[in-house]
Amino acid sequence: MFIADSARCSATLLVFLARSCSDSLEPGTLGQSYRLDQVAGDALPTVLYTNEVGTFHIISQFIHFGPKGTGSLSETAQMVPHTGEPQEPQESTSGIQ
Q1: Cis ω for the linkage preceding 45 (within 30 of 0)
Q2: Is 64:71 a contact under the CB 8 Å cutoff?
Q3: Cβ neighbour number for residue 61 with a 10 Å cutoff
Q4: Are 91 and 74 in contact (CB under 8 A)?
Q5: DSSP labels for the chain?
Q6: Predicted local distance difference test score (pLDDT) of residue 78
Q7: Which of 30, 25, 89, 21 is nearest to 56 (CA)?
Q8: Phi and psi (nearest 5°) for 53?
Q9: Across 71-96, average pLDDT
Q10: What's the confidence (pLDDT) of residue 44?
Q11: Stretch 14-30: mean pLDDT
C-alpha cells in the first residue's frame, strides 16, 4: 500500500513542483537539481494527505533533470497509521523518461 501511495504522491507532487521549488525551471537547466520547498503553501516536512489508513507525510523531495527528457525524482516520506506504530521514513528514487 505504501508503494502505491508513494507513486500516487510523486505524481501529485510533480504538479506542485513548478510552483513550489526553490528555483524556476528555465531553458538550459539540464543537469540541475531542484528541491521541493513547500506543498500548497506548507513548508516541508508536511502532511500531503490523510486517508482511512493514516497520514502521509512528505519529508523531502528532489528532482534532477538530465539530457533528452530524462531525470530522477527522489523523496523521503512517512506513513503514520491511525493505529499502531508509525513506519520509519522511506527513501525512494524513480526515473523520469
Answers
A1: yes
A2: yes
A3: 25
A4: yes
A5: -HHHHHHHHHHHHHHHHHHHBSS---TT-TT-EEEB-EETTEESSEEEEE-SSEEEEEEEEEEEE-GGG-EEEEEEEEEEESSSPPPPPEEEEEEE-
A6: 95
A7: 89
A8: -90, -45
A9: 93
A10: 93
A11: 50
9: which 3 cell numbers?
A: 504522491
Which residue's C-alpha cell is 528555483? 23
Grid cell of 62 as nine digits: 528532489
Block residue for cell numbers 525551471: 25
Q: What is the pTM of this model?
A: 0.64
* Domain range list for the chain: 2-24+52-96
The contacts of residue 52 (CB under 8 Å, 6+ apart) are: 82
Mean pLDDT of 83-89: 90
Q: Sign (positive/negative) of CA torsion 14, 16, 20, 25?
A: positive
pLDDT of res. 43: 93
